[in-house]
Amino acid sequence: MSEWSLKRFWKSAGVADCDPGYRIELDGRPVHTPAKAPLVVPTRPLAEAIAGEWDAQQERVDPNVMPLTRAANAAIDKVWHQHSEVADMIAAYGDADLLCYRADSPEGLVARQCAAWDPLLEWAADHLGARLRPVNGVMHVPQDPVALGAMSGRVHDLDSFALTAMHDLVSMSGSLVIGFAAIHGQSRPEELWNASRIDETWQEELWGTDAEAATTTARKRAAFLQAHRVYALSRG
To answer: How far apart are CA 114 and CA 130, in angstroms?
Structure first.
């Protein structure tokens, strides 16, 4: 069942226990990823949600409305095989984390950044063992290698499904700290997304909203929130 252009041929999608995990089936037949691996996920809630996506298909399979299936395919076909490389790419965000690059004016923007970002950096220091140093401006300032190593180790410890979710949480927000805060439940995902948008929101309040930028923001927001859902379901 790896062909994304299939017409719907099944009556119902279901879930079956297997070793290890849970297999998605269509009329009792196992679904496979695009690379023809069995579509097996670590928890029943994730498997049932994916089965629901297949059940919701109409005449033809539309991957654009199957984000959980796409995430599972990525975890199985790509991330599992390139785990170290993906982890390195995500961990690299720590050395240029959004939360560390601050405005020095106007006062209102500085206050917003401090109010939203300082508690997250303190949380990272307390719970991740990684104290990152905020700086003014946008020029890169290297962070403490010990702090970066602590976060990198935690990224590498994530399994393939968690790492798949973490990829979008970090890349959509621009912050490794926000990604960790999301998977550790430090704040609601919507609040964390809003924290990542403080600069853009400030500009929109001053100059108005650009239609193209708003479309891009909506796409990124959906990807961020969906990634959090993938992570939560993959934990059970």
So the answer is: 18
Query: pLDDT tens digits for 180-206?
Result: 999 999 999 999 999 999 999 999 999
Q: For the domain that residue 201 is a member of, what is the CATH number?
A: 1.10.3580.10
Please state the domain count of the chain: 2
Residue 74 lies in a domain: no
β-pairing verdict for 13-17 and 22-26? antiparallel
Q: Is the dihedral of CA 183, 186, 190, 195 positive or negative?
A: negative
> By the 8 A CB rule, do 40 and 20 touch?
yes
Go through 48-69 and write b for each residue having 16 or more CB atoms within 10 A of its CB, e for each that does not: bbbbebbeebeeebeeeebbbb
Q: Which domain holds residue 111?
A: 83-235
Q: Are the beta carbons of 193 and 31 closer than 8 angstroms? A: no
Whether the predicted model's global pTM rises above the 0.90 cut = yes
- Comparing CA positions, the residue from 142, 175, 182 lying closest to residue 158 is 182
Question: 132-158, pLDDT tens digit by residue?
Answer: 999 999 999 999 999 999 999 999 999
Q: Which residues contact 235 (CB under 8 A, 6 or more apart)?
A: 43, 162
- Residue 149 falls within a domain, yes or no? yes
